[in-house]
Every structure is written in C-alpha cells, then in structure tokens.
Amino acid sequence: MYNSKIIGLGKYVPDNVVTNDDLSKIMDTNDAWITERTGIKERRWVKEGSGDTTATMGVKAAKMAIERAGISKDDIDFIVFATLSPDMYFPGPGVQVQHALGIKTVGALDVRNQCSGFIYALSVADNFIKTGMYKNILVIGSELHSHGLDKTTRGRGVSVIFGDGAGAAILTREENNKKGILSTHLHSQGEHAEELVLKAPGMGTRWVNDILADNNEDDESYFPYMNGQFVFKNAVVRFSEVIMEGLMANGLQKEAIDMLIPHQANLRIAQFIQNKFGLTNDQVFNNIQKYGNTTAASIPLALTEAWEEGKINTGDTVVLAAFGSGFTWGSAIIKW
C-alpha cells in the first residue's frame, strides 16, 4: 500500500472583481450587512463573453498545478473533477479537461458533492493511489456560480455569498506511509437535502419543459435556496466532529494542527471552529474575504494560496475540512 501526496497546486480566478458596494447598486444590501453576516468583502464573477467556464477555469488551474508538480500532462493517469456547476448537464467537465489538456484517454470522473466536493474528490484520488491502481492523479475543484444566481433583493441571502474560481492539485505515490495524505473521512445526512438546494431542473421536481411551459418569472425553483441559520448550526457541529475524527484516527491531538484550511463557506463558521480548537490566526487560512464561497473550488484555492504565501511547510500537519449541501461533510489529514 502506498500513501498519496500533493506535489503540485494551482488556481485560477476571473479578473472581474465584484465588491459589496457593487452589489448594493443592483439589490437592497450594503457592505456592512454582508460583512457582518459572512465576512465577505468581494468576490470574482465571470463576465459574459470572457470565455471562462467551469471547465476552462479548471484547465487553467490544472496547467499551473502540473507545471509546479514538475511532471508532464502525459504522466497523468486519471482525472477527478468536483463541481456543482458543470458547463453542460452532461457530460461532466472531467472529459472536457482531458480533451483540452491533450491528455491520453485516461479515465475522468466527476464528483457532485458541492461544498465538500474537493474533499470527496481528494479521497477518491487518494484511495486509487493507495491501491496502486494509478500513480499521478489530477484533482480539480471549479465553480461558475454567478450566471445562475438570483441577483435581486429576493435572492440576496444567497447571491452575495458565492463567487467563481478554480483550484487544482496533483497527487502522486508516496512510499513512506507517515507522509502525505494520512486519512480522509466522509459523511452525509440526506434528510437535510432541501435545506441547501437547487431543485430545478430535476426529473423528480420540475424539468426544463415545465419551466418553459409556465414561463413564470416568480418561479424560484431554478435558483439556489439556503436555510442559512439551520445550515450554520449544523456546519459548526459537523466541522468539529469530522476534524476530531481525523485527528483521532491518526493518534493526534488538536495541538498537532499546524494549518487548518476550512471550506470557505462563511468567515463566522471558520472563526467559530478556530476558537473551539484554540487555534491562532497563523494556524487557520481564510480567503473568503476576497473570493466569497467558491464551493468545490474553495479548499484548493485556499490551499494553493496558503502554500504560495509560505504558510505550509514540509512536515506540517495540514487539516482540510468541509461541510455543505446534501448535507455532506468530510476531512483530510495531511503530513506535508
């Protein structure tokens, strides 16, 4: 059995910066209201005509990760792509990346686990490498939320939170089982599926034909819905549980954490977890202030920036944790 380790990280965000003040011009909100509730000051939204899509942003992040890993695209054996916002209903963006990068006909898997998508994708890649099936795997988290948000006062509770962007990682074999990804831990609780949901189009609710036939501008089923307080209360509990689960599985105490990178859902959630675990500002990395919640892209974006800024070093114990729609949640414990 091998371990897997991350040898290359990459990111991409659109050039278009949308501040809280910008949003106040198109809906009834303001900088103070958004900052107090979420910690977000700005986010990136893809501009119409820019050419950026979920897949193309993933490709740009992947190219950076491949270069930093010091490998060739031809060394990649498998692709795992996490997103809730694919370019097409099907096929998924994994195959688009394979084609765009000119990679040989390797397998491409799409993961639909929303905010915890990158943790799930990382776990899949990690276990493929652990079994010896593959050597080098490209893992991507990418999202284009902005084209599907309700940018009116009605939708402000959700639309002010989300941003666009992508992050990528290259995983490879590590023969020392005390290094690399030590363990991953995944959970779900489907009874709360409709507390954070996008219902349409969907075969079991409203399909495209229904929406077109009704032509009803007041139909909210094709915009995201979130029960914010309920999600927050569950998130802080599940974050804590799954981080402790990962630490205990590896015989570690919370004092062993050198860097915690939580999914960038809400700065208040991250601060709650930081205080609960007694971590300093130097032990937790947040960039939601400038990118908003980029769902499956948030952890690889934050991980890449933390590494770029020298906040993650060889030998560090790095903890990744996420919670989101489904509900699904997970963690990864890494010895860098």
From TrEMBL:
<dbReference type="GO" id="GO:0005737">
    <property type="term" value="C:cytoplasm"/>
</dbReference>
<dbReference type="Pfam" id="PF08541">
    <property type="entry name" value="ACP_syn_III_C"/>
</dbReference>
<keyword id="KW-0012">Acyltransferase</keyword>
<dbReference type="InterPro" id="IPR013747">
    <property type="entry name" value="ACP_syn_III_C"/>
</dbReference>
<feature type="active site">
    <location>
        <position position="293"/>
    </location>
</feature>
<keyword id="KW-0443">Lipid metabolism</keyword>
<dbReference type="InterPro" id="IPR004655">
    <property type="entry name" value="FabH"/>
</dbReference>
<dbReference type="GO" id="GO:0044550">
    <property type="term" value="P:secondary metabolite biosynthetic process"/>
</dbReference>
<comment type="pathway">
    <text>Lipid metabolism; fatty acid biosynthesis.</text>
</comment>
<feature type="region of interest" description="ACP-binding">
    <location>
        <begin position="264"/>
        <end position="268"/>
    </location>
</feature>
<dbReference type="Pfam" id="PF08545">
    <property type="entry name" value="ACP_syn_III"/>
</dbReference>
<keyword id="KW-0276">Fatty acid metabolism</keyword>
<feature type="active site">
    <location>
        <position position="115"/>
    </location>
</feature>
<keyword id="KW-0275">Fatty acid biosynthesis</keyword>
<dbReference type="GO" id="GO:0004315">
    <property type="term" value="F:3-oxoacyl-[acyl-carrier-protein] synthase activity"/>
</dbReference>
<comment type="function">
    <text>Catalyzes the condensation reaction of fatty acid synthesis by the addition to an acyl acceptor of two carbons from malonyl-ACP. Catalyzes the first condensation reaction which initiates fatty acid synthesis and may therefore play a role in governing the total rate of fatty acid production. Possesses both acetoacetyl-ACP synthase and acetyl transacylase activities. Its substrate specificity determines the biosynthesis of branched-chain and/or straight-chain of fatty acids.</text>
</comment>
<keyword id="KW-0511">Multifunctional enzyme</keyword>
<feature type="domain" description="Beta-ketoacyl-[acyl-carrier-protein] synthase III N-terminal">
    <location>
        <begin position="109"/>
        <end position="190"/>
    </location>
</feature>
<keyword id="KW-0808">Transferase</keyword>
<protein>
    <recommendedName>
        <fullName>Beta-ketoacyl-[acyl-carrier-protein] synthase III</fullName>
        <ecNumber>2.3.1.180</ecNumber>
    </recommendedName>
</protein>
<dbReference type="GO" id="GO:0006633">
    <property type="term" value="P:fatty acid biosynthetic process"/>
</dbReference>
<dbReference type="InterPro" id="IPR013751">
    <property type="entry name" value="ACP_syn_III_N"/>
</dbReference>
<dbReference type="GO" id="GO:0033818">
    <property type="term" value="F:beta-ketoacyl-acyl-carrier-protein synthase III activity"/>
</dbReference>
<dbReference type="InterPro" id="IPR016039">
    <property type="entry name" value="Thiolase-like"/>
</dbReference>
<keyword id="KW-0444">Lipid biosynthesis</keyword>
<keyword id="KW-0963">Cytoplasm</keyword>
<feature type="active site">
    <location>
        <position position="263"/>
    </location>
</feature>
<comment type="subunit">
    <text>Homodimer.</text>
</comment>
<comment type="similarity">
    <text>Belongs to the thiolase-like superfamily. FabH family.</text>
</comment>
<feature type="domain" description="Beta-ketoacyl-[acyl-carrier-protein] synthase III C-terminal">
    <location>
        <begin position="247"/>
        <end position="336"/>
    </location>
</feature>
